[in-house]
Write a structure and sequence with these properties.
Largest sheet: 6 strands, mixed
CATH superfamily of the largest domain: P-loop containing nucleotide triphosphate hydrolases
Distance between the termini: 20 Å
Oligomer: single chain
CATH architecture of the largest domain: 3-Layer(aba) Sandwich
Shape: globular
Helix content: 10-25%
Number of helices: 9
CATH topology of the largest domain: Rossmann fold
Number of strands: 21
CATH class of the largest domain: Alpha Beta
Length: 358
């Protein structure tokens, strides 16, 4: 459990009001634009930056406040930076063991072989960082932080320097750390897909303040969050695998009172996951269509219709789960869409972004 409440004024007059609480074993995402204060907040918690005033407690121990200001290595907080920051003159094994050897045996809760297996870095152990790819360096950096057996693990935009393909490769490794080690995490990011995959809770930051906190699905579905994101609004929903193999390379998922077919997932029956369905990938029909290729057709009730600009309208739907559809204003007018109306939502299987187990 982390309880932090502090202030920090930086050069230029920027004032950070750091108020953050995290739950045991949960992943809390710090989300916000560049310059919002996310990294500064993380650095204050880790002891890399000293607050002007306030109090920071971890598992009931005071890290800062009341005359206490523990050095970073005394806080038992693992930190993964945007850049791996590996020691170039040391082998991967020596990098991994650097913090491990400096952790008192009484505090060691994570085994070397366990971390090597989870991160699939066995073939890298004899090599040096200079010869590693960006993704390989990141995995080694993850392992080095985890092997200190931290009480809290902070990721400060650890995938920011990687391209999309490397990011997709790295996310499953972070998921394994989350799922198998039960170490609470603070994950700093402005990438929705990363938060969707990893976070239990989200704290939204702007101008040095945390403006909103709550469960990830609730925050990701809030209107202010959606429209401030990337101009591509959508809906985040929780689903359960009903049939991993529904034939024809598909899996069947249960959502609310309905079901969805998605490309085959390597998950077991009953596994939970999150989905992000983009508003632009949902079509609306007044009658149940026939003779079309779309597999996912959900009966729905219109909650609201809002004109977004001169050409578009956003329709919020209740279909056992809340969905957003972005259609043209002309379509909304010709279909006479109004709150309370009964329609069908058409979703393409390939348009569904898979998130993490939840």
């Amino acid at each position: 459990m982390l309880e932090a409440q502090f202030i920090k004024t930086l050069s230029g007059g920027f004032r950070l009001d750091g108020r953050l609480s995290t739950g045991k074993g949960r992943v809390t995402a710090l989300f916000g634009p560049s310059g919002a204060g996310k990294s500064t907040l993380a650095n204050c918690i880790a002891g890399l930056t000293r607050p002007d005033a306030g109090r920071i407690e971890l598992d009931g121990e005071v890290l800062f406040g009341g005359g206490t200001d523990l050095a970073p290595h005394m806080r038992r907080i693992g930190y993964v930076f945007q850049e791996p920051r590996l020691f170039p003159h040391l082998s991967v094994t020596a990098n991994l063991l650097y913090g491990f050897k400096r952790t008192p045996k009484a505090h060691r809760r994570v085994a070397f072989d366990q971390v090597v297996e989870m991160l699939d870095i066995g073939p890298l152990l004899a090599r040096r960082p200079l010869g590693l790819s960006g993704g390989e360096k990141s995995r080694v950096a993850f392992g080095r932080a985890v092997l200190t057996s931290p009480r809290l693990l902070i990721f400060d935009e650890p995938l920011a320097s990687l391209d999309s393909a490397r990011k997709a490769e790295m996310l499953p490794f972070i998921e394994r750390l989350r799922d198998e080690l039960d170490i609470p995490m603070i994950y700093v990011s402005h990438a929705v897909e990363e938060i969707l995959r990893l976070a239990d809770d989200v704290a939204v930051m702007a101008g040095g303040h945390i403006t909103r906190t709550g469960p990830a699905v609730e925050i990701l579905n809030s209107a202010d969050f959606v429209h401030a994101d990337d101009g591509d609004p959508g809906s985040v929903i929780e689903a359960t695998v009903r049939r991993p193999d529904a034939g024809d390379g598909l899996s069947e998922l249960a959502i609310g009172t309905g079901r969805l077919f998605v490309p085959r997932l390597q998950l077991n029956e009953g596994a939970g996951l999150r989905l992000r369905i983009r508003a632009r990938d949902i079509a609306i029909s007044r009658a149940r269509p026939e003779g079309i290729s779309v597999l996912n057709i959900l009966p729905a009730r219109i909650v609201s219709v809002v004109e977004v600009n001169n050409a578009s309208a956003e329709v919020e739907l209740e279909a056992g789960v809340r969905l957003r559809a972005r259609i043209t204003r002309r379509s909304a007018r010709e279909l006479a869409l109004e709150p309370g109306g009964e329609v069908f939502a058409l979703i393409k299987s390939v348009a569904i972004d898979r998130g993490a187990g939840c």
